[in-house]
């Protein structure tokens, strides 16, 4: 079984701006720029066949949901499992909240345990950043697709692989 999550890919203007502040290598805790995303729903280890039953509902929801403005207001320290991380903090907004609400319904349909942590939208840049600082960095772009991601095979050059995606085409 594989680990899964639904996420918004980082729009090109935001990606380009974040690249200017990307230092380090994966061995030093830096995320590869190709792996940057904003997680909407972490599923974890789950059978692919059972997950496939949910995908028609995901497609229907994405067809009615509006694209999501991703507005980064800066790079900030963020509590991680193995210590401080550095993330690009994303402002919460109506379209993002609507997408996250749908993700909560998907979680229920998959019979997953409720998420106990508060949703704090962000893009992880460095998983190990003991010296993470606050850096003002206003960036914005429009996320118009939602992806289903799985763990990539070792040696693939990326941590995650895009399995399926849907346009956020509603208004």
TrEMBL record:
Pfam families, alphabetized: 2_5_RNA_ligase2
InterPro entries xrefs: Cyclic_Pdiesterase (IPR009097), RNA_CPDase (IPR004175)
Keywords noted in UniProt: Hydrolase, Ligase
Positions of transmembrane segments: none
Domain of life from the UniProt record: Bacteria
MF-aspect GO terms: ligase activity
PANTHER family linked: RNA 2',3'-CYCLIC PHOSPHODIESTERASE
Protein name according to UniProt: 2'-5' RNA ligase family protein
Species for this entry: Isoalcanivorax beigongshangi
């Amino acid at each position: 079984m594989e680990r899964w999550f639904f996420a918004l890919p980082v729009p090109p203007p935001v990606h380009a701006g974040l690249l200017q502040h990307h230092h380090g290598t994966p061995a030093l805790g830096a995320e590869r720029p190709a792996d940057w995303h904003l997680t909407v729903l972490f599923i974890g280890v789950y059978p692919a066949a059972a997950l496939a039953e949910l995908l028609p509902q995901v497609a229907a929801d994405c067809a009615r949901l509006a694209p999501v403005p991703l507005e980064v207001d800066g790079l900030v320290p963020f509590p991680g499992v193995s210590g401080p991380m550095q993330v690009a903090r994303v402002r919460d907004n109506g379209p993002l909240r609507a997408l996250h609400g749908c993700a909560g319904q998907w979680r229920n349909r998959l019979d997953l345990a409720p998420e106990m942590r508060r949703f704090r939208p962000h893009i992880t840049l460095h998983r190990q950043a003991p010296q993470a600082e606050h850096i003002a960095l206003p960036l914005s772009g429009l996320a118009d697709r939602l992806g289903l991601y799985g763990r990539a095979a070792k040696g693939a050059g990326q941590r995650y692989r895009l399995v399926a995606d849907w346009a956020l085409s509603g208004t």
